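Readers of this paper often ask what the protein records in our data store actually look like. The remainder of this section carries one protein's record, kept here as part of the documentation.

:::
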Amino acid sequence: MTEPTAPIVLGIDEDRGAQTAIAQAFNEQGIFYRFVTDRRKVTGGIKQLKPHLLVVFGDLESDFVIQALDVLSSDVGSAQKPVIVVCGDTADAAFVQGMRTGVVGLLQGPFTPAHVGVVRAVHEEVSTRTGNSTGTADAATLHRFVEHIRRTRRSGVLITNPRTPSEGRASFIYGKLDKGSFLGAHGMDAVIAMLKQPHVRWSFTEIAGSHSEGAGVVIEVGDVVTGETPIAEVSVTDDEPLAFEVQHRQAEPPPPAPQGVSPQLLLVDDDPAILKMFSTLFTKHGFAVTTATDGNEGFEAALQHSFDAVLADLNMPHLDGWGMLRSLREDFRTRELPIAFLSAHDDYRESLRALDAGAQAYLSKGTKLDLIIGQVVKLLEPRRALLAMLELGQTDQLLIHTIGPQWLVRVLGQRELSGVVSCRDGWASYTLVFHQGHCFHAKAVAGKYIAEGERAFNAYVASRAGEGSFVAGPAPAVAQNLFLSTEVLIERACTALNDNERRMRESLMVTATQIDVNTDLYSVYRAVGPKQWLEAARLICEEKTPPREVIARLDLSPLEIEECMKDLIRRGVVTLKKA
């Protein structure tokens, strides 16, 4: 039987003197241990040491522990690390027993050499945990659990009295309430009402915790002798060197940790200084960053590579962020990309936010950097939550439109899962059947009309505001009507749907007899749209001049007028109709 690999442990403690003996105790028992005493060095320490486990010293309600947990939760590569807290009050120990990320254990302080064995045991069994806790509680206990979620910056979904008419549901992201619903109440009102129940059954499922999540770069950790005490020291780009204090002389350096899967971020801005600053910032927070200098270049990059999120400037030459957004949303290959925008112009940004132009977030360039990081991390949460739910087998309620119908199918294919996807939107219901990642049957029903095979699969990919479920298990006995790989089916669906959209637009360009103008969007376009098309846009939108007459009145070619019309249509400023 193979011996378990000893964990690499990073300690976080403001008491440097106490850590001398603690580090000695770990190293003498064969566990590679380093510590930091400054919470500002926690993220750099994690990226360099690649610890399997963190040990934080202090009570949960203490400023030092809270600030350390804040640092961890703000970094996409660190938020999944299991944490043991050595503290004086372990009353919350029952709440963490099933957790596999974040705070996974509470040890009664002060630290003794016997705790080393407990840390090793938690490391060996935490990966077998479900990430789920259940139980019954009175109002006081449930209130304490919600407070624990807040203090420990935990992400997950709390359900009270599940599968009953009085079911309550509250989702938290890094300790902050995201959504809540209970008997008609929503948000914080729902949580307050849930906490007033005298006796409830409850369950909590943590978000994330899936294997291979997180990010990081493998960096060698070497020994540097300073005075009489060996100190393992490495350098962080653009930062002061970070010292891991106190290394036992006989301890062997850790083997390089395997590189994680970094979230892929596309940054789009025409300012090289902004690109460099944000590239450095997001790289330090665990992202793999690709850059583009205008909307056209950003759109082409999104077609060529698979990104997890896009952060773009709204104000750029050639094609601005708004135009890029419309191009991304118009193309079925990129329409599901989570997108956030930055702008120094409040009116432009707030107008697009109010008009729900299609991005998930609109931020000021004056926003604090940690809040920008947090917002982009939040864009990743729905998909990370789905991955965790798949692992836990809890996919009976899915907001498919928030993760993307294509993305869900692609994940099921990559994970070679078997089961049935059921989805419904305002137009139809869809059923996809999978066997070991291969979608071999699709059906769509809209009233009395039924489509099967690729037509049904394509309709599912084009669905909007879909909700449904994925029920894992052996595929039911249905006739096979799809015979291509899942990836090929997605590619063919996007091609067909894009062709249909293009033909429809081109037909309307020729046959439309009515132009409807969104006056709010036109006011934004007049302020920031491409200068060479503003006069043509004025004639079309304000004077309702037909395109043929615009060509006659302006020194523009038919191709330029056509491009102007396409830009207005793409941005939603005008809609063409037949009378």
